[in-house]
Amino acid sequence: MSGQPGSQRIAPTGGERRTLSIMFTDVAGFSKHSAIDEQRTLRALNRDFDIIYRQVAAHGGQVLNTMGDGMMIVFNSATSCMQCALAIQGDLHRQCLSRPIDGVLQHRIGVHVGDIILNGKNTMGDGVNQASRIETLARPDSIAMSREFHDMVKDKVRFSAKYLGPRRARNIPEAIPIFEIPPIDDAIRQQVADSLFVAPNIDAVDGATGRRGALFLIAAVILIFAAASPIFLLRAAQKSADEQARRDGRGFVMGKADGEVAKDIRQRLGFKDGNNAPVANNQAANDPANNNAPSDSISLTPDQISDIAAKTNAYDYAGVAAEIQASPGATSTQGMVMIKKYENLVQFKQWLSNFVLTTSEASPIQANIDGQPAQVYSIQDGIAIVQNNQLSSHRLWDLKPATVESIAKGASQMPTDSATYAPELTSWIGTFREVHGLDQ
């Protein structure tokens, strides 16, 4: 299948190591779709594969292998690889809007640049392993990429990616720093909200971004007229976001006034009201040279407060610790306590991620999730949760904090780790509850 018309041959090198840009794709929930209607699912997959093949050929890549519902694709150029990934994402999204008769499949895309050994039909190398694992970290309809790949293309291709922080992947010893281009629908929703404050610069966009911009403008007009008033739209969106955050149990509700967020952060980190409150929402807070803060406190600007909140919601504890360490007053008593809390959470996250990988269907974690007994164990793309004889698959760090805490408590009761980590686990889980507001 790698000989599709128009594709660029990347000739085997007899086992010689080469550095290429590597893309992996697969379909989220493919087995489930096939179990429901195998023929319809296969027709949809072949239709989507045709789209991918056309874009790969147009961007000078080569499909080296197809693996059931996924592909391994390589490019000589990182720029071409990124442009191809965006084009595939855009084509699949437009097809979704047309509601094709054979249904819609959600594809994940992972991209990386690294070493690969081409030897006939065999491919191997660390770059292949990394790219394959990065694809498993992508959300349905999104594009995930390594830091190395992101840094190579960020100034050459127009796109908007969010840094998700280091993510653990199966059989990869070190956490992989991941950037994500979200599903187009998510990007449109964010652009609609932004457009109520800043007019888009239409002349500055092109290619896939231009297509997204056109979709976003249409969505903005529809939403604004449907709501009759931008104020109505904003209030409704904020109310929905706040309610969802409360339902999920996330640590911070974005959209609060800066002072309220600062108070929320301080309370969840165990600080009392007083002179050591983080500086917020004034000009002095934005001045790194501000020396007016008490010597035993830390100064946080409004931007830093919002960033800490967002990173906490995303379980990016290492990012929060780094943010605090770079702030004025980081060596104060307050600053050191905050840093220590988040460093403990980094260890907690690493422990739980590694522990879950040791579980299986035969040896699951026994947890109590939302008041119901559950079995949790590792599967290829993340974890399985079995409740009431119903199985659902998830990525651990996409779950709400209350569910993560339940899994951690169940894991802490298993004899293989409880003796080794008992003192730390009690403290880590307590800090996790505190920081994410589960005690409220």
Key terms for this structure?
440 residues, alpha+beta, four-stranded antiparallel sheet, 14 helices, 18% strand
List the helices and strands and how they pair.
Blueprint: E1 17-27, H1 30-36, H2 38-58, E2 62-67, E3 70-75, H3 78-97, E4 107-119, E5 122-124, H4 126-136, E6 143-146, H5 147-153, E7 162-167, E8 176-181, H6 184-195, H7 207-227, H8 230-248, H9 258-268, H10 302-313, H11 317-325, H12 333-357, E9 365-369, E10 372-379, E11 382-387, E12 390-394, H13 401-412, H14 415-435
Parallel strand pairs: 4-6
Antiparallel strand pairs: 1-3, 1-4, 2-3, 4-5, 6-8, 7-8, 9-10, 10-11, 11-12
What does this structure look like?
The structure is a single chain. The protein is an alpha+beta fold. It has 14 helices and 12 strands. The strands form 2 sheets. Strands 1, 2, 3, 4, 5, 6, 7 and 8 form an 8-stranded mixed beta sheet that branches. The protein has a 4-stranded antiparallel beta sheet with strand order 9-10-11-12, covered by helices on one side. Helix 12 packs across helix 14 (415-435). Mean pLDDT is 74; it is low at 1-7, 192-209, 223-259 and 270-294.
